[in-house]
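User: Um, any thoughts?
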Amino acid sequence: MLTKTLKSLDLALSKKQLRQFEKLLELYLEWNSKINLSAIKDAKETIIKHFYDSLLITQLDALNSKLKLTVADLGTGGGFPLLPLAIVYPDNNFLGVDSVQKKITVVKTIAKELDLNNLKTSMERVETLGQKQKHREKFDIVLTRAFAKWHTLLELALPLVKIKGKLIAYQGPQILAELEQSEKIIELLGGKIQKISHFELPENMGERIFIEIEKIKNTPKQYPREIGIPKKKPLS
């Protein structure tokens, strides 16, 4: 089922990449049985709701570039979309960020087993990361999937995106009702909604909406605010 699902996305994968995906499935299911990385325990659901869902972004133009892109995955959890994308795009450099140590440990362990040399991890809080010169406005693409509520997500993610780069948020259908109310916040943080894309997951397992926000100007220096504030007092 795994190979058939990957092929349905028209990905030109090498034999090595296919083996990496097979190994990723094996390792992830093994780790998830020991540590609660996700409520999804079944192999079929893992393939569709984690692998396929993570890779839907390949249907957009954002990562399909000959340039070597720097990509951050905020709230990577058990490594999605980080690990599948690092396999598919070996020339891009990925940073997986999560504040939960056990999850970062698992991601690092799996990445090592898969020989993914284009992937690093960080356990720093995103509020801290976004104020560091090393990371602030340094990423071509910032990804978020099951990361935070919308207004909090915007404040945490957009400061990391470089000018002309993109924030690409994996969202569900409920986001459409929030977008109009967030236009001023997106503008304040230096962004502009560029594209909205809709996809259906196989087996009637849900709907995925991608919100692509282009960074058109620098984020004001006071954002993101101190740890915990973006969540407790979201911008409005």
